[in-house]
Write a structure and sequence with these properties.
Structural class of chain B: alpha/beta
Strand order of the largest sheet of chain B: 3-2-1-4-5
CATH topology of the largest domain in chain A: Rossmann fold
CATH topology of chain B: Nucleotidyltransferase, domain 5
Number of helices of chain B: 3
Order of helices and strands of chain B: EEEHEHEH
Structural class of chain A: alpha/beta
Strand content of chain B: 15-25%
Radius of gyration of chain A: 22 Å
Radius of gyration of chain B: 13 Å
Order of helices and strands of chain A: EHEHEHEEHEEHEHEHEHEHHH
CATH architecture of chain B: 2-Layer Sandwich
Bound molecules: iron/sulfur cluster
Mean pLDDT of chain A: 88
CATH class of the largest domain in chain A: Alpha Beta
Number of domains of chain B: 1
Mean pLDDT of chain B: 89
Strand content of chain A: 25-35%
CATH architecture of the largest domain in chain A: 3-Layer(aba) Sandwich
CATH superfamily of the largest domain in chain A: P-loop containing nucleotide triphosphate hydrolases
Number of domains of chain A: 2
Oligomer: heterodimer
Shape of chain A: elongated
């Protein structure tokens, strides 16, 4: 059962929710797909880390063979190639590794070389297997890393929590593609509603069963709650604004492992979530 | 020498476009004959790498200088590789900028920005 945790922007408590739900489960896998700024591992402090480099293929030019016909430049729809001063220039960071130019070159002047764009780290933190994707800075796309992160877990029967990148860009779509259920984490402000709406549209686009967790709740009006009720989004739970929780979180501690109170809270939340997922998978297998 | 300027409309009376890669047109202006040609910027609609493609267009037109308010990193790499100078425009009037270049009053553009290549951001 794969559960993706999303939010429209960073700092809403997406990682807090994903980390604590994973920690509250008897046994689980936590996957950090926020490859530009992974931070789940800071909480889990996993051990026995095995890391694997992730590479993509980038074209490389053999200038002796190139006749300057520019077929490759015209073909590349990402504009990663330029032909200047009788020389082909490849912009590695712009290239999307489609391989088209290599096939297209009539002179066979282009070949592919492997380029490291980041890595995947696997480790263990008590009951949780922690898998982290890391994209090197300056790289165009983390999608190859996400693909790798999610490919290894297809067989897993237990609970898998996917901590998605913030926003609703293509990298988020890739992260939720195979999820059985999506949890939307929202803050109780108007801006929070705006962000919630973004990810809500995304999960609807992908036709994913979903529910919301409202974080940092205070007494009084909650625009995010109102939004959920209006749109008929199931509210899985509310986390009230709480200094102690905030402090544990900012010290990179997992509150479920520190305090019974939070263990109970997240266990109850986890139960609601798993019940929802079972229900959804039962009616939409 | 021919120069290139990103412009909003196909007229020398129109204004300098604030974007290089996404400008709708380029003015190619011949400083000696004072002739102007307007080119459609085919890069304006591209998904990514617009700066690179626009720079290729500029270079292919054999200009000696580009006058622009800003220019991304990759585009600047292309333009510099072709030994084309990049000057920073002083205001949005095309004529003012051409006159300033003639009088040697334009400075080279040195704040090249790293661009926004992160797929629509966060
Ligand atoms: S298609 Fe091949 S020969 Fe033509 S410019 Fe590109 S690399 Fe050179
Ligand atoms: S591999 Fe694809 S994206 Fe990369 S330079 Fe070649 S055509 Fe462009």
């Amino acid at each position: 059962m794969k559960i993706a945790v999303l939010s429209g922007k960073g700092g809403t408590g997406k990682t807090l929710v994903a980390v604590n739900l994973a920690a509250a489960a008897k046994e689980s896998i936590y996957i950090d797909c926020d490859v530009e700024e992974p931070n789940g591992y800071l909480f889990f402090k996993p051990r026995d880390i095995k890391s694997e480099k992730i590479t993509i293929k980038i074209p490389i030019i053999d200038e002796r063979l190139c006749k300057g016909c520019r077929k490759c430049v015209d073909f590349c729809k990402f504009n990663a190639l330029a032909y200047i001063n009788d020389k082909l220039i490849v912009f590695d960071e712009v290239c999307h590794s489609c391989g088209g130019c290599v096939l297209f070159c009539p002179e066979k002047a282009l070949t592919e070389k492997e380029k490291i764009i980041g890595e995947v780290q696997r480790g263990v933190s008590d009951n949780v297997t922690v898998i982290t994707g890391i994209l090197n800075t300056g790289e165009a796309s983390g999608i190859p890393i996400i693909k790798k992160l999610l490919s290894d877990t297809s067989a897993g029967k237990g609970l898998t929590f996917i901590d998605c990148p913030p926003g609703s860009a293509c990298i988020v779509m890739e992260s939720i593609k195979d999820a059985d259920y999506c949890i939307l984490v929202a803050e109780p402000t108007l801006f929070g509603v705006h962000n919630l709406n973004m990810v809500y549209n995304l999960v609807r686009l992908f036709d994913k069963p979903h529910g919301a967790i409202l974080n940092k709740c205070l007494d009084g009006e909650n625009p995010a709650e109102k939004f959920c009720i209006e749109k008929g989004i199931q509210i899985l739970g509310k986390i009230s604004f709480d200094n102690e929780l905030g402090t544990l979180n900012s010290n990179a501690l997992i509150s479920v492992r520190e305090n019974m109170k939070y263990r109970d809270m997240f266990s109850a939340l986890l139960q609601t979530v798993t019940k929802e997922v079972r229900h959804e998978t039962a009616i939409n297998p | 020498m021919k120069i290139a300027i990103p412009v909003d409309e196909k007229s020398i009376e129109s204004s300098v476009c604030i974007s290089f890669g996404r400008t709708p047109y380029f003015l190619i202006y011949d400083m000696e004959s004072k002739k102007s040609i307007f080119l459609d910027n085919s890069a304006a609609a591209s998904q990514g790498g617009a700066g690179i493609k626009a720079a290729q267009t500029i270079v292919d037109n054999n200009v000696g200088a580009l006058l622009t308010p800003r220019c991304g990193e990759n585009a600047a790499a292309v333009i510099k590789a072709a030994n084309v100078k990049i000057y920073k425009t002083i205001n949005d009037s095309i004529i003012d900028n051409i006159n300033a270049l003639n009088e040697g009053k334009l400075a080279l553009l040195d704040d090249i920005h790293a661009g926004f290549h992160n797929h629509g951001g966060k």
